[in-house]
Amino acid sequence: MSPEQFRKEGKKIIDWIADYYEQIEDYPVLSQVKPGDILNSLPDAAPQQGESIDDMIKDLDEKIMPGITHWQSPNFFAYFNANTSFPSILGDLVSSGLGVQGMLWATSPAATEVETRVLDWLADMMDMPEQFRSTSSGGGVIQDTASTAALTAIIAARERVTGFKTNEDGLDKKLVAYVSSQTHSSVEKGIKIAGIGRANLRLIDVDENCSMRTDLLEQQIKEDRANGLIPFFVCGTIGTTSSTAIDPLPEIGRISKQEKCWFHIDAASLGTAMLCPEFRHLADGVELADSYSFNPHKWMFTNFDCNVFWVANRSELINTFSILPEYLRNKATESGEVFDYRDWHIQLGRRFRALKLWFVIRHYGVEGLQHLIHEHVRLAKAFENRVNDSEDFEVVVPTTMNLVCFRHKSDDAFNLKLMNTINEAGKIFFTHTKINGQVVLRMNIGQTHSEEKHVNNAWKIIQETAKTLE
Ligand code: PLP
């Protein structure tokens, strides 16, 4: 394809995406296909001769779209946000167009330096403690996901506690990690991958707000030490996946410092809220953390994948992940004046992901981002009020941010039937969880284009459908 053809075909694709967003509300939010439908609609073998972009667009419309669940629909209230925005899509397109590898400063200096600047901006925008900035002892780096960020933190914690020896000698000590029973499963996965073993992960019980009980944390750490084990890692969460519970971070931080454990904070979903000064108290205790991560690819209008991961002391990270094969040796690295981000995470190669974040922040500005977050929280509160005012439904845990956990006052089977009936009809899509053994419906409000009318309509559908099923 020549640049001229690319220009022509590229415009068709941009038009196709813009048309999609104009028509997005006409699609059933939850894909209605059955397993194998899409697979069976595709040819068994790859084409021998090249095909036209027009043919591909036709197949996108006819074969692919039926199998899409529309995460970007304003009527999508399921799971958690994974929102995007036009500036983010454009930033990502530029990154694809440039196609650079940003593994070392030397392999494309702008890829490193834009990332450094944007993550320092973000630290300022969220009023994070000084140590997380590149101009201080720490700094931020973009990872693909919160799962990878947690694994990175676990491995760095493992190295720190073993004097940076495990990478060379293997793990011969009994290290123990602590999370709450509500912590995201990605941390358990990280513990398994890092060779700590599931048997050495303690799931600390939670209180009535689903927040970690620090009395039990302290007690468990003491017990483990008495048994000759080595506590090394504690994870606290701002916004658990089930119910947006907040762990008592100042107390977890105090215990972690006292016990010389690495303290990681997972704010995957809610981290974006720290853009707004009135929500920053949720992150109190971050000053005690060794690492902190959140996902702009959830609530900050930046398309997947984009996790931001900050450490208070970058040398611990670099000591853990640095490796320099001969073919990557270069003057800039040897000068020590530059960051080589491949030393800040697991993989070597890296895309220019900072561009989409740079586009998003510059397009909306801090105030524009704050406005959207306020609006989502306001809509969630309004939805909660309606549930409280209704005779048939109840709120299960008070709404702290943009997730409303509620249920119909009848039994679990009715709630599941209600949810499935609504989701199959395709007008809106929402999901459920279990809290204290009971089915709870989750209304997560945070899609880039969700407005009051969409939330009102969702409540109307839920109420009307419940009446037809009673
Ligand atoms: N942590 C929390 C609190 C989450 O809610 C999620 C995803 O929902 C994750 C971690 C995992 O995120 P990722 O898909 O970026 O690994």
Automatic annotation (TrEMBL):
Annotated Gene3D superfamilies: Aspartate Aminotransferase, domain 1, dopa decarboxylase, N-terminal domain, Type I PLP-dependent aspartate aminotransferase-like (Major domain)
UniProt KW Metal-binding keyword? no
Q: Which cofactor does it need?
A: pyridoxal 5'-phosphate
What's in the keyword line of the UniProt record? Decarboxylase, Lyase, Pyridoxal phosphate
Molecular function terms, GO-annotated: carboxy-lyase activity; pyridoxal phosphate binding
Q: Which GO terms describe its cellular component?
A: cytoplasm
Q: Which residues form a coiled coil?
A: none
Under the heading InterPro entries, the entry gives: Aromatic_deC, PyrdxlP-dep_de-COase, PyrdxlP-dep_Trfase, PyrdxlP-dep_Trfase_major, PyrdxlP-dep_Trfase_small
Residues recorded with modification N6-(pyridoxal phosphate)lysine = K298
Keyword Oxidoreductase among record annotations: no
GO biological processes: amino acid metabolic process; carboxylic acid metabolic process
Domain of life, source organism: Bacteria
State the similarity comment: Belongs to the group II decarboxylase family.
What the entry lists under PANTHER family is as follows: GROUP II PYRIDOXAL-5-PHOSPHATE DECARBOXYLASE, MIP05841P
Q: What is this protein called?
A: Amino acid decarboxylase
Lineage per the UniProt record = Bacteria, Pseudomonadati, Bacteroidota, Bacteroidia, Marinilabiliales
